[in-house]
Design brief:
Shape of chain B: globular
CATH topology of chain A: ABC transporter involved in vitamin B12 uptake, BtuC
Largest sheet of chain B: 7 strands, mixed
Number of domains of chain A: 1
Strand order of the largest sheet of chain A: 1-2
Shape of chain A: globular
Order of helices and strands of chain B: HEHEEHEHEEHEHEHEHEHHEEEHHHEEEE
CATH architecture of chain A: Orthogonal Bundle
Structural class of chain A: mainly alpha
Distance between the termini of chain A: 44 Å
Number of helices of chain B: 13
Number of helices of chain A: 12
Radius of gyration of chain B: 22 Å
Number of domains of chain B: 2
Largest interface: A-B, 44 and 41 residues
Distance between the termini of chain B: 69 Å
Helix content of chain B: 40-55%
CATH topology of the largest domain in chain B: Rossmann fold
Helix content of chain A: over 70%
Strand content of chain A: under 5%
Number of strands of chain B: 17
CATH class of the largest domain in chain B: Alpha Beta
Strand order of the largest sheet of chain B: 8-7-9-10-11-16-17
Order of helices and strands of chain A: HHHHHEEHHHHHHH
Number of strands of chain A: 2
CATH class of chain A: Mainly Alpha
Oligomer: heterodimer
Largest sheet of chain A: 2 strands, antiparallel
Chain lengths: 303, 411
Amino acid sequence: MDQILFNLGLLAEYPVVNLKIIIDGVMIGALFALAAYGLALVWGVMNVKNLAQGDFVIAGGYVAWWGAQQGMHPLLGVPAAFILMWGLGWVVYKLLITRVIERDLFTSLLATFGLAIMMAQIMNLMFGSDTQSINLGYETLYFADGLIDVPIAKLIGVCMAAGLAAGVITFMKYSRMGQAIRATAQDSRAARVMGIDTEKVYAFTFSLNSAICGAAGAIIVMVWVIQPFYGITYSVRAFVIVTAAGLGNLPGVITAGLGIGAAEQYGSHIFGIGYQQAIAVILLLLVLVWRLSQQRKNRQVLK
Amino acid sequence: MELRKLALSVTATAALALSASAAQAASHACEELHLGAAISLTGKYATNGIHAQNGYDYAIKKIDEAGGVKVDGKCYNFKVTYYDDESKGDRGATLAERLINQDGVQYMLGPYSSGLTKAIAPVTEKYGIPMVEAEGASRSLFNKGYKYLFAVLSTSEQYLASAITLAAEQATKNGGSPSDVKVAIAVENDPFSLDIRAGVLEDAKKLGMKVVIDEKLPRDLSDMTAILTKVKLVKPDVLIVSGHSKGAATAVRQIGEQKISVPMVAITHCEAADVTGNFGDFAESILCSTQWAETLTYEDPIFGTAANYETEFKATYPEYAEKKVPYQTAQASAAVYVFKDAFERAGTLDKDAVRDAIAATDLKTFYGDIRFSEAGNNVAKPMVLRQIQGGEYNVVAPSAFASHELVWPRN
């Protein structure tokens, strides 16, 4: 309790720290949002809850890291991871996901859980279990007597994440494939009747998800660190965000992502960093309780 | 009942096979002496598990070359049966049962990590199998009253406690008193790191230091900015961070990015996270704890000096040529050496006699002195602190073995 009061006191004494916490939170949240966005796509379109989401993120990180080891410019790792992970996503879809797509919830959960374990272990065998990261060696910007620091590498990462998100949203809205994906999400049978090749749409969606995750991972390896077994962190965050925001609500996913990032930062400043993930889960609980009460009030039909 | 019968017959077959192979080996100069180990060859501890296995194998080779193990006039060579525990505790315990019951192993080498050792120790204890381990440092291993568990390494609460001593020395040198020193602690919430924290807290309290930040990092930590911002506001004199290699990498990167100017920063797992290679200047003048360094002045007749161990090991395992030989490897070799010494002093292969001989070990090795306490941990070897100076790891504490002066304050 003393600790909490002391921490709150620090916030009051140095108000500019609030700004720093929000900036840090938004930067982390942007990357969580990216992974969550891919999950929302796959969940909404194919009704597959992909537990290997975080492992796709880490795999993308390793693509960028490996590229950088071979002398590639680290920033090129992001498109490289996008493309390679697209390919991997397609292979995984054809080998595994297509077989579980029409099955019940547990089949897809089990299958993707197995996939997550396998991916982590394969990465461990390929790259070893050491933590890896890429140091871009860029400057850090300082504001307010050095209390606020914005590493340029982080800034670039967040901009890339925003660019990618904007690209995907535009694509979903205006392209034929995007329309087909949305149509399939609304009603796959009707879409099939209308002549949409849903199998192709599924394969495309899953590959797109994997590519988005890959790009997010390539950004993460420049800003933080990766290790073969840290995929679960991103899986958990993605699930929390998608559940809180609701499916098919893409702006909601992004807002929730940024919000959870900021809330975690605030929570860890006030209650101690050990409670970081607890904050995310408590937030999810509150949102669910609130949404349940809203639904009771409105008496809507569940989609 | 069925099961027991099966186990019995399997044991009998194993014993038969063992005696057959022993008879075969008799034609050679030395007989085989079987050791067993469950070690992490896959899973999250794979990197370090393989370091440890290489350390075991290298020591066996060196002892072989030096004439083997002489027990009661006869000569033996060690042979280890390894199983992969997949970095999982329950798997480790099952494999220990299998080694003992099916393969008839009478002496064990330890697995990698405190967690695995904790899982296996009750099994070896149950069967009265002596185990010399080199990779489990948690002090909770040594308060259970185990009689057959011995560890050649320093226990984890000593890992960063020497940084506190060093900070106190600096304070006195600068005309202050140790009680003016403010300590900030950020450790991961796992048994190993919590031990480190306990050791630091104990020493800080003894010296009257004030602990201004004391936080536990979550296991899936990806970001430390919240804690470091606090550090920036509170301005402690010492910052202690321990969170395995992820914690080390995150801390070094973000301390650099946020320009945290604490006079002394001490962390663990510098080498595993390769902080100098990954973060260059950010890692400058950070203190890293280690069990062993090749610049130390220890030596023994089998491996020569610590420096000698380093060069010869690299010649045998060229994949280490580019990097430093990790201390995990050195201590694994030391564990095998303890067995050799104990067998020779015991003069018999009886496992209880060997156990007593291990307990009475008083050995000087290239890895440091080895003498076990009643609880089984090594009390003769101090923990070493190295400071990153110009991208090199230089020993700065304890002062008796220090090759370089401490740079203080950092940047």
